[in-house]
Design a protein that fits this description.
Chain lengths: 70, 168
């Protein structure tokens, strides 16, 4: 997992960062950095996340395209 | 297209579409009347359909804990460039559209477009350009362990000269 650039956009709840093409889980990136010492703990931590209205909105906004003429 | 009989002023005020993984349901359909007050489709001819669309598509895991592929497209279509006695750029048959490629189970897309009873009048009396403002409310509800919802409302304008405005 890549390290999070200092200027990477974060989701409002701070759980996700934008890598330029998609949102990445902050915990996963930190887990990757810590993973050498802590093994696969981040893999177990990810499912503990819960979908919220804010995350749902972020997901939809990331999937939204510009208006186009058909 | 191009005959007077093709131009229908049904004049609906609301178009309501609802979609889930099983398909799209027209709760309330029809076309809005885009002629300005004082104008109607009698003697009108011509016109070309246009559609503008916005797509939402997710085809990869956005969150590590969630795989919620979806693909749906919301749009507005209208007949533009209608002439009356060789003049004007009128519009009619304005409607909202919703197409679904894929939606997860327990994921619904609700589209409600609200229209005024008539279009607006732009241009000059000799060369009227009709315009129709509409409000499009897009509501997305999902069940991902718990109920989540997202609502977006846009003020869209479609014009008789084929132009349009759909703010981001």
């Amino acid at each position: 997992m890549a390290e999070i650039p200092a200027d990477a956009p974060r989701s409002e709840d701070g759980h996700y960062w934008w890598d330029g093409s998609q949102w990445q889980l902050v915990a996963a990136a930190q887990g990757g950095a810590q993973g050498q010492a802590q093994g696969g703990q981040q893999a177990a931590a990810a499912p503990a996340q819960h979908m919220t209205d804010e995350l749902f909105a972020n997901m939809l906004q990331a999937a939204e395209s510009d208006v186009q003429e058909a | 297209m191009g005959d007077v009989a093709d131009i229908v002023n049904s004049g609906v005020a609301i178009i309501h579409l609802l979609a889930n993984h099983a398909g799209v349901q027209t709760v309330q359909g029809g076309y809005a009347n885009g002629f300005p007050t004082g104008y109607d489709g009698n003697g009108a001819s011509g016109g070309t359909f246009k559609q503008v669309t916005k797509k939402w598509k997710q085809s990869s895991e956005w969150y590590d804990f969630l795989n919620a592929d979806f693909d749906f497209t919301v749009g507005v279509s209208w007949l533009w460039g209608i002439h009356k006695d060789g003049h004007g750029h009128y519009i009619d048959q304005i409607t909202a559209t919703l197409e679904v490629g894929y939606l997860p189970i327990d994921f619904t897309v609700d589209i409600q477009a609200n229209f005024p009873t008539h279009g607006n009048k732009f241009g000059t009396d000799d060369d009227v350009i009709a315009g129709m403002p509409l409000t499009m409310a897009i509501t997305l509800d999902g069940m991902f362990g718990q109920a989540v919802s997202f609502r977006q409302q846009k003020n869209i304008v479609v014009m008789g000269d084929g132009t349009w405005e759909w703010p981001t």
